Amino acid sequence: MPAALSISQEILKPHLEIQGGHTLSRELKVSGAKNSALVLMTSALLSEGPLELHNVPQLTDIQGMADILSSLGVRVKRSQETVWLQADDLHHAEPPYDLVNGLRASFFCIGPLLGRLGHAKVPLPGGCRIGARPVVEHIRGLKALGAMVKVEHGVVTASVPGTSRRLKGAAIVLDCPSVGATETILMASVLAEGTSTIENAAQEPEVQDLAKMLNAMGARVSGAGGPIITIEGVERLHGCNYSVIPDRIEAGTFLIAAAITRSIVRVSPVIPEHLNAVLQKLRDCGCTLEIDKQGITLIPGDLHGVDIITQPFPGFPTDLQAPFMALLTTAKGTSVVTEKIYENRMQHVAELQRMGASIRLQGNTAVVEGIPQLSAAPVSGNDLRAAAALVLAGLAARGISQVDGLNHLDRGYDGIETKLNASGAHILRHQPSG
Ligand code: EPZ
C-alpha cells in the first residue's frame, strides 16, 4: 500500500474490515463455478435455440460476459442464479474492444462465432497482473481447423475461406494444456465438417462441464477430462437447460478458511474429485476431512508445513496457490510454494509479509516459515486470488485488518463476506459512495 496515500484516502477505497480471531462453524455454501459459467455462456453463440443456465454465480464477470454477448445480438436475461440466452438474431461477430479488454474469457467467443458464422473479429485480451497470458494456442488450433487468422492493431480477425462457412475437422496437438485454448477449439470444432481431435488437452472440470453441455445441445464430444478429446462435427446444435458445476476454487478457499481459523466447518456443494490434489495437501498438513455425497467437513489438526507446486489439472490448481500460502504462514515448520503456471502470481507475498508472515521469495518460489499468528494490517489484493488470500489471513490475524482490491475479489467470489459472516466471521464491507 503506497505510503503516499493518506489514511483518509485509504479509507475512501472500498474495502473489507475483518476482525480476526473468530472461529467459524456450521456451513459455507458454494456457488456455481465462475470459470465454467463464463465459457458455457459463450456457447449460446453456437445455436439459435434457447439456452437456460442454472446455478450461475452472481459476479461482476458474469455481467461483463452478458454485456458482451448482448452487444453481438444475443438476447440475455438474468434473474438471481439463472441466465437465459438466445442467439437467434446474431447481427455481428465483433465484440467491442472496451468490453473485451475488461474480461479475458470473452476472447473465447472467437471459437463459437467462427464455428457458427464462419467469421469473427475479436480484440486480443492482452496480459493481466498475473502474467502475459498469450492466446497463441487458440489461434494455432483455429488455423488447423482451416481458418485464416490475422492479428492486426490488437484485433484477431478469423474467417473460413471459400463459399462454405464450415471449418474442417483436424488433429490438433497443443504445446501446453491451456484451458482457454482447449475450450475455444472445442467450441469451434463441434460444427466443423468431419472429426477433430485435441491432444494434450486441458483436463479441468470446467472443460468437462463444457463438453457435457455441448453434448446436451446435440454435439458429439468424447474424452473430455482426459488428455485427448474427440469431436465429431454436426450440422447444427439446439438449445438446452443446464446447471453449472459447483465452484471448486471457491470450495477450496472455504476449506482453507476453516483450516486457517482452526474451525470445524462443512463446505457444500462440492464434487470431491474436482479437488483431490487440494484435499491431499490439506490432509498432509494435518487436517481431517469427512467427505459425503454433497459436501466436505474439515476438522483442523496441529497444522504443519507442506510443499506446493502448481500444475494443470489434476495437479494442484494455481488459483488456490495464494489462499493455501496464507494458511501455510501459520503452519508449523517450513513450506516451499512453487508457482509453475503464471510468471507473476506472487503479489500476495508482500502483503502477507505486512501481516508479519515469514516468507522468502526467489522468483516463483516462496519459502514460508510458519509463525504462531499473523497480525492485522491494511493490505491490498492486487488480483482475484491474492485478494481472497488476504481475506483468509485477516480472518486468522490478531486485530482488525482492512483488505482492499474488492474490484478483483467480486469478480470471482459471490457475496464472500455474507457467507463467511453467516459462519461466524466478523467482516464489514465499506463501499464509500462517490
Ligand atoms: C483459465 O485461464 C482460468 N480462467 C484461470 O482462472 C486459471 O488460472 C487458468 O485457466 C489455469 O487453470 C478462466 O477459465 C476464465 P490457460 P486460461 O490458457 O484459460 C499459458 C481465476 O483466478 N498459455 O490454461 O487463460 C498461459 O500463459 C483465473 O479464476 C500459453 O502459453 O488459462 C498460462 O501461463 C485466473 N499459450 C498457462 O498457459 C496459450 O496460447 C495457463 O493458461 C495459452 C496459454
- Specify the number of helices: 15
Largest sheet: 4 strands, mixed
Strand order of the largest sheet: 21-22-1-23
Strand content: 15-25%
Mean pLDDT: 95
Q: Which regions have little confidence, pLDDT < 50, spanning 5+ residues?
A: 1-5
Report how far the terminal alpha carbons are from each other. Answer: 21 Å
Structural class: alpha+beta
Share of helix, binned: 25-40%
Number of strands: 23
| Bulk shape | elongated
Rg of Cα set: 22 Å
Are any ligands bound, and if so which?
ligand EPZ
Sum up the structure in keywords.
alpha+beta, 4-stranded mixed sheet, binds ligand EPZ, 434 residues, elongated, 23 strands
Overall description:
The structure is a single chain. 32% of the residues lie in helices and 23% in strands. Residues 1-5 have low confidence and may be disordered. The chain has 434 residues and is an alpha+beta fold. The two termini are 21 Å apart. Helix 2 (34-42) packs parallel to helix 3 (60-72), helix 7 packs parallel to helix 8 and helix 13 (384-396) packs across helix 14. Residues 35, 38, 104-105, 131-138, 176, 178-181, 202, 206, 318-319, 341-342, 384-385, 412 line the site of ligand EPZ.
